[in-house]
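Progress narrative, work stream C.
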Amino acid sequence: MASFLKNNFSNYLWVTLFTIGIFFIFYLFLYRVPLDERNLLKNTKYTLAIVTSDWHYKDDSGVGVDYEYFINDKYYYKTSNIRVRKGEKYIIVYDSLNPNTHCLLNNYELSDTIIPPKNGWKYNEVPIPIDSAYIRNIIR
């Protein structure tokens, strides 16, 4: 009888730990991303991104086009699965506290004459009109 209770308790313990582990994984995936989005909306800044490659299917950085942006004396290199052409410049919205959290806005193409400040623009400083409601919808 003691052996039966011991085995039953052991099985119960493993099932409980497994269930807690599954909930923890769901928590990480479901709540971590929205936290980044909230920070992006809270600490929003804008800068210029330059598309540096043509569309590629196989590359170390993934599928899509490569682009770069420059913030506070540091270059950031990313890849996105969007249809743009090499050499084009677009507005990028980023989290001023964590510039790796960003979103490329491929419907806001910039001319070659626009030079962003090294720490980016605030919303009211962006040199072309942008729609904040549209940007919020893209980020979410």
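Work stream C, second folded protein:
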Amino acid sequence: MSAAQRLQEVEARLAELSRSKEDLKAQIVHVVSPQPDVEETIAADSGIDPHEVAAGLAAAVDAKLHVKSLKELQEPMRELERAARTVVRSAAEGAEAYWQAVGNACSCYRTVGPLCSAVESTPAAVEHTVLQDLSQQLLSRAKVSLASIDKACREHLERRLSECGWPPPLAAPKGSVLGTEKGTSFWERLEKQGGGLLDGLLLSLAALTMVQVAVEERTGEPAGECLWFMDVMAAKLEERLRAHFASNRKTSDINQPEWLFATALKLIREHADGMAFFEGRLQTQPVDYTLAFQRRIQAAVKGLLRSSHLPALLSLGSRDLWRDWAVAAAQFDRDVAEAPFLVREVGVAYSGDVQYSCLNVFCERQEWMVAWCDAESHALVAEVEELMAAPDAWEPPKAQDWEEDEPEAASRGGTASGHELWPPRCAQGVWSLVESVVQRVEGLGIEHRAHYLRNVAGPGLQEVLRKLGAIVKQAEAYKQLTAPNWAAKVCGCACAAHYFEHHLQELVYNSSLLEVGGAQAVFGKEMSTLVGLRREQCMKLAKAVAMEFGHTSSSYRCWSLADLSLLGLASRRSVFLQQR
């Protein structure tokens, strides 16, 4: 049965319902009257429920309006389908024919769009299967036509880009015109070459942008940044990156993470700034084409990490490689944030671009994050052990020079009694490691920060606590808390515990941790343990010093009062003789 026949069937059904309207009108009027027994009387006489009839009539009215919307949509839909076929044919013809075809297709879509919205807003009471089928058919035809227009415009743009030499080679060949001139963008150099290539490319870019504007106008919201053409350009670059770093190429060496990130950074530095060439050529409103291009290169790198590099790291199981790739990804994010063409503060750019961060890809799958956190925590614990076992680990802080160092640094000189914090050198080194871990979470999503800190910095701090407690227990077991060869370590442990406790409390003001509940939520257990450890060690030291003092002065307490009197008399006589 054709669509026209289905519509005739629906119209016949509507006519039948309309004929019964007059017969039931009086009954509906009585239903809404104030007499309570009218409804039962009418229902008993006619055998029909007036409420059901009223609901059926309301549904019939809605269905009639919906049929009207479907009939209004049919002819514009045919026009849109013809326009879409014309766009596909004209893509292989001249530029003028192609431009006119795209413009006509956009005009047809602007007509069809509101009609499609009217069909989509079908009342829930309209449940006729024929109407539902017709609605879905017409809406799907609109989607197919729009998809064919979009595909034709994208393919046309891809051909124009290839003719212009886009994407550029990742390493420009020697003697190439587009790769040797400095200070100008790819597009400016293309414009100087002439030949009409750039004009044809701009027309293709404008055609795809016109299609996007028409599509976004249907939403009823102000048109935003129309950047479909940028997606096409970035897709070709990503395709070249994938080919360059394919598994069968030497450039895919998993031991060289910097190759991928250096290549991507080179593309951003060479071409992102040049995207400003399109400002005012495609859209009237200001658009940051530089930032849009940068975002798409970052997305391409993230796609490569997801598809090949991180799965390869997981299969290899090398902790060192996981750390190397994470360090390279974090540095790439930092370099992009510090790009000179981005007129933003580096800190704001870095913290605000987490969704584009390559480092954040390491957290997207649980097995990746577990492997990465394991590698980082294992390395941190090893570095903590190395620092605390160094020959000068328990030496006091290095003396500062007023002339060579800042006044703040020089103020840390002197003796321990003049300072609240007097950490041994190992404590300063360990905290710098923990601080670097805390800084790294700036490149992670909020939902991953607490997990990363607990599983990386947490084991490092626990190793510190274990070492500090073990040293004091060992000295206590040998009863050497105040012995000269143990005093530096034992006192250093108490100072180190106080130092770590202080800096963990200072993390309360760290913006990266505020969104995950603050430092207390992440390091609450370690902070409580440090407070208890410091107090316990100080009490043990005080007790040991008091006992040592009592033991040393015990012989003086054995003298009698008479002995002290004789000693005083002898002392005064000696002074008298010396004066004479």
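Residues 367-557 form a domain with the Tetracycline Repressor; domain 2 fold (CATH 1.10.357). No further action is required on this item.
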